[in-house]
């Protein structure tokens, strides 16, 4: 009887796991983020991430900075907390910040 309960429980959990869909990300790296237009992206205004993109010689990062600069009021935020909240509120926004802040 115990074995029947365990097998039933395992089967139910496996079925639930297999039917749960995980959302697909429309991009997997910064090149993909830069190439798409559905998700806005930005960083902390006047922060080191902004300076990284602004000063970069990498063509992709330069294009990303051009986008952020052109949309500054909408995508550049005052604090990291504001950026994390905007991402968590599912606003089709990617917030770029230093890994030491994550």
From TrEMBL:
Residues 1-57 form the Ionotropic glutamate receptor C-terminal domain. Pfam families: Lig_chan (PF00060). Residues 1-16 form the signal peptide. Keywords: Glycoprotein, Ion channel, Ion transport, Ligand-gated ion channel, Membrane, Receptor, Signal, Transmembrane, Transmembrane helix, Transport. InterPro entries: Ionotropic_Glu_rcpt (IPR015683), Iontro_rcpt_C (IPR001320). The keyword Ion transport applies. It is found in: Membrane. It is a multi-pass membrane protein. One of its GO terms (molecular function) is ligand-gated monoatomic ion channel activity. It comes from the Eukaryota. The keyword DNA damage does not apply. GO terms for cellular component: membrane. Belongs to the glutamate-gated ion channel (TC 1.A.10.1) family. This is Glutamate receptor ionotropic, kainate 2. It comes from Cacopsylla melanoneura. The lineage of its organism: Eukaryota, Metazoa, Ecdysozoa, Arthropoda, Hexapoda.
